[in-house]
Amino acid sequence: MEIWRVKDELVCTRRVPGLKSASLRVLQGLKGNIEVATDPVGVPVGKWVFTTLGSAARLAMPDPTVTTDLTICGIIEGWEE
């Protein structure tokens, strides 16, 4: 698991069928790296979150057939950088 800050929502008008209609968020890590994650919890921009990756990321989605390798698992309350 890693900690990230949600920088923005990512809207894609075309996507692979395996991604289905999963919400996407742009995340920024503590070292400034940027990633895109599926968001089954509806995180607003600016919040800190923790994620899971790899095959566990698919299992964290409500539909485990969604093809993702990075999923937001929860919102962190009270985190300071």
From TrEMBL:
Coiled-coil blocks: none
Subcellular location: Bacterial microcompartment
Record bears the keyword Cell division: no
Pfam families: EutN_CcmL (PF03319)
CDD domains: EutN_CcmL
Domain of life (superkingdom): Bacteria
Principal localisation: other
GO CC annotations on file: bacterial microcompartment
InterPro entries: CsoS4B (IPR014077), EutN_CcmL (IPR004992), EutN_CcmL_sf (IPR036677)
Keyword field: Bacterial microcompartment
Designated name of the protein: Carboxysome peptide B
Native species: Thiomonas bhubaneswarensis
Lineage, opening ranks: Bacteria, Pseudomonadati, Pseudomonadota, Betaproteobacteria, Burkholderiales
